[in-house]
Specification:
Blueprint lengths: L4 E4 L2 E4 L8 E4 L5 E7 L4 H9 L1 H9 L4 E7 L8 H29 L6 H10 L4 H10 L3 H13 L7 E4 L2 E4 L4 H9 L3
Parallel strand pairs: 4-5
Antiparallel strand pairs: 1-2, 3-5, 4-6, 6-7
């Protein structure tokens, strides 16, 4: 189905597609879904990961109130962003959701060190089969998966990262926890 939005007053409501292979944490049937379009090399995405995501996780994801979906939006100005997105998809393909999130965290903790050789080192450090990971990463097997997210983001008007949709309400940039809390609480 195509993504679309409905205008209600001055607030646009966006419909986000969530295919079965989307990577998420939290309760699959939570009342609120936060979808993040992100770039592993983006300093503002790393700021959100460090400063805001832990509080959202503690207060809402771990409590079963929020499903948090990660989608790729590698920016052309970040030379390692596309391969980094492919790398985390390789991790998911090999080791499932837990491997995706371990790699996600490792890459954001080291987001200035995202060369191909470091991505392979991170995969080894998170316990992935390094042969399988290298084959996946070097082959570009996950390129289409990453581009699918990017195309969806473009259709939704995403132009920079991070961009979020809280049950369809767009929030742009690395906003403080209070902005997310307000959006989440209004939907619970």
């Amino acid at each position: 189905t195509a993504a679309f939005f409905l205008m209600t007053g001055s607030t646009a409501k966006y419909e986000i597609k969530t295919p079965d292979d989307d990577n998420f944490i939290g309760n699959e049937n939570a009342a609120v879904t936060i979808t993040e379009f992100s770039d592993f090399q983006c300093p503002f995405c790393a700021k959100f990961f460090r400063d805001t995501e832990p509080q959202i996780k503690k207060d809402y994801i771990d409590a079963g109130k929020v499903k948090f979906v990660y989608k790729h939006f590698p920016l052309p100005s970040h030379s390692n962003a596309q391969k980094s997105a492919e790398a985390v998809e390789c991790a998911a393909d090999i080791g499932g959701q837990s491997a995706f999130w371990q790699m996600h965290d490792k890459m954001f903790q080291n987001n200035n060190l995202l060369s191909a050789s470091n991505l392979k080192r991170f995969a080894a450090e998170t316990g992935l089969n390094t042969t399988d990971f290298s084959l996946c990463l070097d082959s570009g097997a996950m390129r289409g998966r990453v581009l699918r997210d990017q195309e969806e983001g473009k259709k939704l008007g995403v132009t920079g990262t991070p961009a979020f949709f809280v049950n369809g309400q767009k929030i742009e940039g690395a906003q403080p926890f209070s902005v997310f809390k307000s959006a989440i609480e209004s939907k619970l």
